[in-house]
Design goal:
By secondary structure, the protein is α/β, with parallel strands linked by helices. It folds into two domains: 68 residues, Signal recognition particle alu RNA binding heterodimer, srp9/1 (2-Layer Sandwich), CATH 3.30.720; 58 residues, no CATH class. The protein has a four-stranded mixed sheet, with helices on one face. A four-stranded mixed sheet has the order 5-8-7-6. Strand 7 and strand 8 form a beta hairpin. It is globular and about 55 Å long. The mean pLDDT is 94.
């Protein structure tokens, strides 16, 4: 009997959940997760739960508006990021191996420019005769690749 697939949620530990959620929503074409029904905002919902204003940025989440991708959750942690990620996201914007390498490079560089405008940082470019990708960092220095 084949196992049933399990849905996943990706979780980022971070210093500023709201800022990082907004960055990744823009980067991925996601949206901030809407507040529960009957509430105009998360702030209004959290106020009814008696969460003090200074604790309302403890978490945030983004969702794929088409419902295809996983929910991504951002939780505030007090400990700083000390080393390279053990897991990272690859943003596949180049079109894959069926697209000519020069065209893939152009698509990747266009996306890199857009992400730089969202406060990402370019760390380095990697390439060989068949592949091309750019290693970047989000506003809290989490590495990801644009390929």
């Amino acid at each position: 009997m084949r196992p049933v697939s399990t849905s996943v949620q990706i979780v980022f530990d971070c210093a500023d959940p709201e800022r990082l959620a907004r960055f990744w929503a823009e980067a991925l074409g996601y949206i901030l997760q809407p507040p529960p029904p009957g509430f105009a905002s998360w702030d209004a919902f959290l106020a009814t739960m008696n969460v003090p204003p200074e604790d309302r940025n403890a978490a945030s989440a983004i969702v794929d508006p088409e419902g295809k991708g996983p929910r991504i959750y951002f939780q505030r942690m007090d400990t700083p990021k000390l080393a390279k990620n053990r897991l990272h996201l690859d943003l596949n914007v180049g079109g894959g191996s069926k697209v000519a390498l020069d065209e893939r490079k152009a698509r990747i560089e266009s996306e890199v420019r857009r992400l730089l405008g969202l406060d990402a940082a370019r760390l380095r470019t990697e390439s060989d005769e068949h592949e091309y990708w750019v290693v970047m960092a989000d506003p809290e220095a989490n590495e990801f690749c644009v390929q």
